[in-house]
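idk why but the lab printer keeps eating my pages so im just putting this in chat instead. protein + phosphoenolpyruvate:
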Amino acid sequence: MSESTIDTVPDWRTLVACQQPEWPDQARLGEVVDDLAASPALVTPWECDALTARLAKVAEGRAFLLQGGDCAERLDSVSAQTIRRKLRLLQQMSVILSSASTLPVVTVGRIAGQYAKPRSSPTETVDGRTLPVYRGDAVNGTGFTRTERQPDPFRLRRVYDASQYTLDVLRASGAEVFASHEGLLLDYEDALTHERSGRRYAGSGHMLWIGDRTRQLDGAHVAYFATIDNPIAVKLGPSTTPEHALALIDRLDPDRRPGRLTFIVRLGARRVRDLLPELVEKVNASGAPVVWVCDPMHGNTFQAPCRHKTRRVDDVLDEVAGFLEVHRALGTHAGGLHMELTGEDVTECVGGGVGFEDLHRVYESACDPRLNAGQALELAFLVAEMLR
Ligand code: PEP
Ligand code: MN
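predcted complex ->
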């Protein structure tokens, strides 16, 4: 990024940061943040640059991106075995997609840092009792008690340690898998941001994304993301106008560097065919080299009769089909997939042998429903058919 660009970016601390926890004790938050700022970065600048280079190939239509993992990682269930099962699933899906598309697949986990969640309401009411909503293990606990739901800044330190452990397992697996998460908690991200010969890198993960709820052009998240040199992404939901997408490009990728900016679109199976063409057309006409990725999960969530949040595998597949159709019709590159999945044998999404009546059996997600390994592999095979 040029110096003139840095000069024009307002300090994120002077802007509104949506979806931040109300930490009860600012002094304690300050201590944790100072401790993190004095800790080594979890990822290196050259690893981040390597991912940007891989994503540049995706932007040019010469590679495909598979990004996936939990909606919300859990601090208490970090284990080498669970991490390896997730990595193995991602790698299997990458192989399936690579052989069908005859393109190299860049594999990126929602992993080693995916601990903070944006929520649609700040509170949750159960049986007439209202408490702060669960905002991810980085902030508070899932249990419906006042103590659990109280934000605790020390959790940020635990996230750092758990992410480091996860990255150790990931690096020892040999295969090239990068780490990504939503860069939601700006105190945490800022503390781990390091400057080196004029370049600034978020040290919390290789790739960070801005969620659909925090992509305001005048907001703190866009301002912070504009200052880092990692590859970054923005989630685009149904309310995104082409003008908003173009303004995001101007703010986040003023130099139009291929691989720098990915748009993860999550429009829903019913709307993708209507809403995506204009977005892609106008961005493409601007000449911006963005990577287009389909998140077929977040526009297809609904509440099952048993009250669990769920998704139909059929809807997920239908949104991917719509995404591919739109890109095919426009002659643009359908760059990849962004999935919520786990290597564990959960019953959170409906389809592939899991019915509504099975949801209660192994529903472990603290937030959104994930595909299990069988569902994810089945989906990869069906998407592979579409890519051939
Ligand atoms: C998520 O990826 O878990 C998420 C909250 O997505 P979005 O910002 O697209 O709603
Ligand atoms: Mn989610």
